[in-house]
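Ops channel
N.P.: pipeline sanity check, posting one input/output pair.
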């Protein structure tokens, strides 16, 4: 009352439109939110919420202040918090979706009380929204309140797989053989074995057969599939009897180009042909999704989530969970691992104030969001107060201390078609993307903060060199090639499993159980945990290092194609070594499959046997081709034409022709596998799909004038731009990073590059030599990320991390002490080098 508005003009506030980004629920600098004790302040000019401690940094004149709290509903039917309310059995592999796992049933027991004020600075004067507030301020405030906000709550559908429509449904052949299926389910049985469950009706022939056995041996005899094969594979669509309801049913296609669950849009007509009226049908058996949920919950789900054990929750600095934003578990698991590393915590906690002070726009600044995560995960600011007694206050405190990485995800995935979508993702692919994103942002950050040249990007702690040795079998000469990587992907050689006999014996017992089950004579108690193949991690590493013969290898020693012996070693051992287990693969029919094996993983491992030593005494080095230049830190680059056969193989995998040619040339026409590895590491390069540049003579030494002009527009002179482009092989984005990261000694760096006469083609420059942190090849398991699901496009990720001597389970917002870490089920393993 009595507020003097004369100092506030219409230019101090703006009314957001529906398409504007409004950050209204959570502080852009921290995880302070509308649930915090002090609420948040949304600047009415830029529409960015800040906590009270960041008002000076924000610097606006007028804010909309919001504070919310939870109040227990006064309704006896709602029950008490924590009461045992039975939840419906999930029928959909999804979290928070219809028929799926419940998201947060407790939240429905409260209503939200909201406080709103206008705050005028300086002086922090709080005013009720009403007639005393100028119309232009009221309109801006109301528009912010009505806006949906930048934090869009996606559906939590991490388990849901999209089912495609079958290409065979529209013109499905249905035989007129006089068959009619009884309407009474008790009369249904397999025409081969007589069993009366897990029955599938062939929609073309009317044949009823038992389904295939499940991965654990349960399920059926496979009669329905055999019928499809015995009839010439002409009739692929089958429907599971017992799942038919007026809303649909489980339909499977045995066709080689589908071989999966499908949709049949004409299912009512197709069933009517066999006398089945969908309207009259009732569900009598579990759907395939329900069976998958059961299997997950009884084995893999139980093992990875440790759901059968009463785990002790833990909370404190370093033990803070992350909200699932809807298919964000892959990101949450990796964030927890990255911030458990000493290098991450030291960097972002130490630089917190400087990063915030120098950030021009925290909503588009990766370092600012890394600082936000560091404060949220590693300090006690968002640790809940456990002394509260009021149920509403407890729930409000829970909301106020939750860490929601929505802003980080928005920035880290911006511009990426897959990661910015609401779909589940492969954790490995996201890790590679995230490390690249952090690398680029940190190189700019070092210049921004004027750090010395010893500062290196966080991603460097994972970087290492793979040494590939190629020996010409005609001349016995050798060639050594070096390739940078940050993840060691390992094949899983199932032939190296140490328990083949036990698996065979289990399969025999399970087959006997299935026969007894068909006759109804199996005791209910006669079940056992599946026995799976166990492969030692050491066998996977030995497989990586195993020698193999390469055909059609071009040997410069004999100037023709011949055979070569190829082997891999690791030249440098980084502070952290990541192992990626190739559990998921594309089958011959291009469907995603999972290799269902257990990996025996030691907590401590010595990798001395993998150490690469380069050219050994007595070895004769293969001569270089004319025009070929090679660097110890770059793959050998042949100036010959790329091998057309290898290029064709890569193009057949879906990569562009230009990208494939670059890969083949970069790996010296080695082989398709080596080229493929290069593609996976460079497919995000801005020039990946550009035509391969001509490298004859000194063509690459002449920088693009347009590129020089663009860099000069950033405040650098032409000579500096020329040096940066030369050092980065003409890559404009990398050249800008190169300049900003060398601000302190830029003139010396420029002269060093431009006076380096060793470089005649632009492929090697003095400043482009990569250095690697190399140490003892002795490692201890620090963390591992596990995945539950049939493929990486669905399912759920969790992380197990060793902290203060104990293994901790990080399952989104749930953090607990692990009782039995499922080491054998990991997808990504993070090993820490022994510190000396």
């Amino acid at each position: 009352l009595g507020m003097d508005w004369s100092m506030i003009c219409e230019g101090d506030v703006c009314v957001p439109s529906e398409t504007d980004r409004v950050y209204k629920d959570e502080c852009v600098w921290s995880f302070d939110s509308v649930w915090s004790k002090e609420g948040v302040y949304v600047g009415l000019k830029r529409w960015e919420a800040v906590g009270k401690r960041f008002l000076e940094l924000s610097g606006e004149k007028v804010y909309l202040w919001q504070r919310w709290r939870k109040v227990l509903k006064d309704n006896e039917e709602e029950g008490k918090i924590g009461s045992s309310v039975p939840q419906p059995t999930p029928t959909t592999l999804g979290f928070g979706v219809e028929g799926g796992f419940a998201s947060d049933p407790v939240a429905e027991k409260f209503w939200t009380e909201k406080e709103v004020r206008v705050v005028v600075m300086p002086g922090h004067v709080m005013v009720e929204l009403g007639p005393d507030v100028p119309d232009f301020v009221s309109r801006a405030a109301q528009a912010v309140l009505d806006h949906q906000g930048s934090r869009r709550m996606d559906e939590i559908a991490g388990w849901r797989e999209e089912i495609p429509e079958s290409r065979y449904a529209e013109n499905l052949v249905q035989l007129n053989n006089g068959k009619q299926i009884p309407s009474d389910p008790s009369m249904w049985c397999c025409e081969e074995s007589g069993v009366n469950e897990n029955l599938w009706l062939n929609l073309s022939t009317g044949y009823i057969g038992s389904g295939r056995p499940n991965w654990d041996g349960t399920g059926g005899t496979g009669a329905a599939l055999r019928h499809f094969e015995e009839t010439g594979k002409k009739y692929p669509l089958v429907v599971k009897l017992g799942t038919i309801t007026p809303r649909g049913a489980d339909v499977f296609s045995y066709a080689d180009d589908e071989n999966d669950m499908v949709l049949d849009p004409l299912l009512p007509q197709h069933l009517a042909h066999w006398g089945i009226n969908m309207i009259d049908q009732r569900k009598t058996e579990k759907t395939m999704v329900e069976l998958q949920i059961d299997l997950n919950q009884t084995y893999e789900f139980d093992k990875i989530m440790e759901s059968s054990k009463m785990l002790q929750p833990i909370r404190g600095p370093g033990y803070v969970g992350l909200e699932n934003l809807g298919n964000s578990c892959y990101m949450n698991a990796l964030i927890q691992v990255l911030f458990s590393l000493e290098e991450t915590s030291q960097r972002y906690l130490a630089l917190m104030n400087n990063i915030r002070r120098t950030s021009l726009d925290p909503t588009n600044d990766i370092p600012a969001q890394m600082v936000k995560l560091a404060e949220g995960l590693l300090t006690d600011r968002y640790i809940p107060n456990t002394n509260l007694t009021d149920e509403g206050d407890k729930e409000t405190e829970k909301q106020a201390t939750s860490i929601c990485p929505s802003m980080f995800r928005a920035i880290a995935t911006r511009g990426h078609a897959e990661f910015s979508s609401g779909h589940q993702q492969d954790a490995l692919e996201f890790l590679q993307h995230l490390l690249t994103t952090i690398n680029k942002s940190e190189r700019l950050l070092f210049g921004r903060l004027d750090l010395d040249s010893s500062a290196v990007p966080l991603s460097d702690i994972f970087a290492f060199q793979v040494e590939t040795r190629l020996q010409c079998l005609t001349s016995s000469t050798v060639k050594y090639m070096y390739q940078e990587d940050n993840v060691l992907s390992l094949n899983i050689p199932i032939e190296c499993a140490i328990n083949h006999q036990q698996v065979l014996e289990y399969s025999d017992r399970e087959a006997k159980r299935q026969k007894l089950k068909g006759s109804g004579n199996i005791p209910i108690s006669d079940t056992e945990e599946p026995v799976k193949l166990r492969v030692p991690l050491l066998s996977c590493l030995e497989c990586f290092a195993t020698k193999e013969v390469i055909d059609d290898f071009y040997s410069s020693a004999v100037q023709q194609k011949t055979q070569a012996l190829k082997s891999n070693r690791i030249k440098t051992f980084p502070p952290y070594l990541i192992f990626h287990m190739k559990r998921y693969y594309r089958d011959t029919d291009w469907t995603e499959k999972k290799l269902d094996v257990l990996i025996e993983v030691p907590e401590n491992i010595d990798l001395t046997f993998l150490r690469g030593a380069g050219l050994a005494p007595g070895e004769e080095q293969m001569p270089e081709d004319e025009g070929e230049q090679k660097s110890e830190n770059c793959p050998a680059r042949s100036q010959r034409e790329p091998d057309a056969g290898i290029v064709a193989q890569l193009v057949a995998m879906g990569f562009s022709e230009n990208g494939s040619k670059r890969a083949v040339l970069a790996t010296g026409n080695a082989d398709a596998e080596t080229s493929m590895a290069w593609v996976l590491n460079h497919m995000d390069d801005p020039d990946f799909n550009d035509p391969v540049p001509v490298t004859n003579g000194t063509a690459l030494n002449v920088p693009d004038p347009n590129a020089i002009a663009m860099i000069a527009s950033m405040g650098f002179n032409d000579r500096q731009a020329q040096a940066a482009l030369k050092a980065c092989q003409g890559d404009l984005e990398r050249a800008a990073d190169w300049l900003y990261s060398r601000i302190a000694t830029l003139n010396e760096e420029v002269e060093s590059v431009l006076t380096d006469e060793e470089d005649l083609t632009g492929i090697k420059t003095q400043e482009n030599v990569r250095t690697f942190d190399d140490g003892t090849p002795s490692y201890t398991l620090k963390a591992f990320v596990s995945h539950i699901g049939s493929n990486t496009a669905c399912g759920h990720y969790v992380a197990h991390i060793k902290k203060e001597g104990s293994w901790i389970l990080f399952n989104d917002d749930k953090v607990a002490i692990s009782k039995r870490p499922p080491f054998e089920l990991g997808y990504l393993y993070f090993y820490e080098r022994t510190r000396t």
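N.P.: looks fine end to end. The chain is about 25% helix and 20% strand.
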